[in-house]
Amino acid sequence: MYRHDGDEFHVIFAQAASKKQMEEVFADIQHIYRTQQELNDRKYHITISAAALNCPDDAADVMNISKNLRYALDHSKRNGRNRLTFYEKGMRLHEMRELDLIEQLRYSIEHDFIGDLEVPANAYYGVQSLRGKENFFITEEKNNQEIYFIIAFAYVKKAAAMANKELGVVKPEVADAMIWACDQLINNTEKYRDQFITDWLQGGAGTSTNMNANEVISNLAIEHLGGKLGDYSIVNPNNDANFGQSTNDTYPTAIHLSCILRSNVLIKAAEELRDALYAKAKEFDQTLKMGRTHLQDAVPMTLGQEFHGWGFTINDEIENLRAAQEHLKIVNLGATAIGTTVTAAPGYPELAVKNLAELTGIDFKNSEDLIAATSDCGAYMTLSSAIKGLAVKMTKVCNDIRLLASGPRCGLKEINLPQLQPGSSIMPGKVNPVAAEVANQASFLAIGLDTTVMLAASAGQLELNVMEPVITFALYTQMKVMTNACDTLRTKLVEGVTANTERCKDYVMNSIGIVTLLKPHFGYQKCAAIAKEGYTTGKSLHQIVVDEQHLMTQAEWDATFNTQNLIHPKFVK
Questions:
Q1: Is 424 noted as a catalytic residue in this protein?
Q2: Rounded CA gap, 390 and 217, in Å?
Q3: By residue range, what is the domain housing residue 540?
Q4: Inter-axis angle of helices 147-166 and 247-283, nearest 10
Q5: pLDDT tens string 132-173
Q6: Which one of 66, 263, 385, 424 is the catalytic residue?
Q7: What pLDDT, on a 0 to 100 scale, did the predictor assign at position 76?
Q8: How far apart are CA 191 and CA 482, in angstroms?
């Protein structure tokens, strides 16, 4: 006898045993545990269910022994505890039939004009969503990863249902149920996230995703009305959820809305990075350092001025992102297939976009030319360009930080970065600027994806651009990686930066570049000669100007080269 697993034990007879012998052993085991068992002052009643078989008659190998014992044991448990059940061949057949029945219950058959398809019985999506999933497996990522996309689609469909209800073209009870369903997706997005199953990239200009939304909303509404999932006689994905609509107006409108929502997150992350840079600018406002052009010594400045410049340049791109959002507020809701509003009830475009604006608090307006708007992707290009601008500025900031932190002994080492992780698998003690490096990489990805957006936007033909899915994927990826890059750079680097104040000051005072401050005194040519002597001899400017050539007194030198005048130079003639 041995413990098989958990509360299961196996008894093996060395020689063939009769049923009577096995029944006697089972009776002995029951007798042992018949009385109450006591543990930690608590009493327990123990029940024992058992199964038995003979080898090789009932099973010839270990795998089948285990399976057949399981069938018999399940039979024991189903028919009352404290019993021994002997395996019979019919048990296996019965079990298989039950499994088949369960499997059938798990799926329902849905039909479209292509044919029949098995859909999970508890799924809120339907046959058209499933076809999209099966046909398009390109990025290996479902668009449900972008939560704002689901929320945006729900808002668009809610605005449409409200308009169609008011116009009397959809039954009030059906419209109300769809409105309720949309609210579930808006307020409990995570609960239904797995019901959106289509890949980011798909043929059909987003039709699979639009129908995915229509089917989920319809089935939620059906359930709300007391019907069975998939009973589209109650609420129909095409006839009700998509009434007076087309993928070609609902899909881009949802993209516009979701891009505004997602870009708000990016803007917030960029603002927090900007503010962190400004905070360091204030902290380092008296830290004298050497400015550089062409990677060569230029003129003095403060480390605070450098950080403020980085913050200011990031802020420029924040403003560009906000400007790009204005373009996204122009939509084509109600345009339907190509912009002629075919199948939409009179007044629907105006009412639907009015509802969308009121629901979201965003000043959405329909384009003055719905035909142009249906094929135009200018708003996406503007947004992508703004994201690219932020990425370009981020690249510059990261490159500067990496240069200023280079060393620790053989580089500039003007600033110290937080030590996040060992930097080398072979060089002990090495620490790398990993936060800046990863922010660089995120920026490069965002810049590259801008090319994708431009190419896709240029690929429109006649009344539609069918490349919007890849534009969507590119935009969301851009915004996601840049948001995370801003957060990483801020929390892992900027907030923990410290200054090597004395090293920065020594660079300045030993630099030939500060000769520029003498130009108002001696003129360009004389200063160039002083600089050349410094370069060739290694002498300091102070040594040449004050000690050797007596061009200035010590007091005059101090007046020109004191810290405050180096930080905020005054013109002296």
A1: yes
A2: 37
A3: 512-567
A4: 130
A5: 888 888 888 898 889 999 999 999 999 999 999 999 999 999
A6: 424
A7: 77
A8: 27
